[in-house]
């Protein structure tokens, strides 16, 4: 079964739902996003009964997870969801894996008076329940704390207005140690026995040390060959600590300079958000949603054969912070697409509702990634015409 909700349902996911014969929980949001997709909609009674009987469920968005928790028919699934949704709880659950990692759970009202002296700089502060880098701040010096807290106060109303409390809850924050190293995003599901199966690995590229944006993710043959085994071992250990089973998650990690894998967060009952998980199909030719529901394991040796030097990228067309999106006159989508030598798909986004104007998927050679990274180092204001 699928839970479909805002912000986005791709055409590929719609096609997948139909081809797999999966039912969709009937909600106003799912109906609006489905259009004429012809889904098999089921009501909450049927959904709860089938979930209670052990049927698998997958979401495209954390907005819809309240239905799983509210029905009360799968307490263990609700437990797994809560571990991921609450970033502080996730840190607490995997703490034995990383005994030297420092973090604090802090109520919003306590941020102003918080004693941050135990935290070594740089450190990070973010909502305990958050998404899409919303409300995330890097503190490079203790003297910046008052300014950061003031910024969080200003952002709180915006965060709560654009996403429901189940997705972004700015009432509680986690203050945690900064992690140097390269960042990766791992789509993985855990089978009935809790065995981890990775369906994709993406590198999260940052344009500077202070960058916290989600502008560029990419996967490549080199990434898969280098990290499939160590990440498989690591997410298996995470799964044992969290007791994950019959569960899909999108786990973000950083690899330090000495090779330690440190988790950032785990996102529940879904792969990469905004249907970015579709990049797996573009990159490797198989369907990650099908893998989860059918219990399929990708044959990576066969998949990667003959794919040397291939990279598949996902780029988010974001706005310069503070842009008044109500006064945007037009977007130069053609100019945005010119960034890519082989565009696979452009997804135009309702930028009045969300702070992005497009998602782009493209194919390139690993050798050409340097050129693309350089182009993405400049903000996208050149593609935005204001009134």
TrEMBL record:
InterPro entries: ATP-dep_AA_Ligase, ATP-grasp. PROSITE patterns: ATP_GRASP (PS50975). Keywords: ATP-binding, Ligase, Nucleotide-binding. Residues 91-297 form the ATP-grasp domain. Pfam families: ATP-grasp_4 (PF13535). This is ATP-grasp domain-containing protein. It comes from Pseudodesulfovibrio nedwellii.
